[in-house]
Design brief:
It is a single chain. The protein has 153 residues and is mainly α. It has one domain. The chain is 84% helix and 0% strand. The protein is built from seven helices and no strands. Helix 4 runs antiparallel to helix 6.
Length: 153
Amino acid sequence: MSRLAIVMPLIDRVLGWLTPLAHVIDLVIRLYVADAFFKSGLTKIRSWDATLYLFSNEYHVPLLPTQVAAFLGTFGELALPPLLAVGLATRFAALGLTVVNIVAVISFWHVLSGNEAALASHVYWGMLLLVTLFHGPGKLSLDHWIWRRIHRR
């Protein structure tokens, strides 16, 4: 027991020194995922006719008409990543992108199931979004800054 009493404060101190690294990791996760989804949204608006074709013939979005699905998917991929990147309404943005990611996997499953790398990318993005959803945006975010300003009063 005495060894544990000596080691635990040391471990606590070392982990305390690593805390700033965790804040950087939170930011890197947000930027990485935001970049992937935003680039996908840019691809969709470059050729709207091609996007509508894909949503009509390749993506099988359940319950939504083609044009609505194309608009919502593109809007989500363009509007939510900037929020995620700067850490504003971060959990809302992460939740929205999680929905976009799930719908993408469901609607494009027939292609993704044969392409392990693409499917793995969606799983990876989903896991990173879950980190942000459950852990929050971290200290390097507008949410943190706003929260501090509100509670300082």
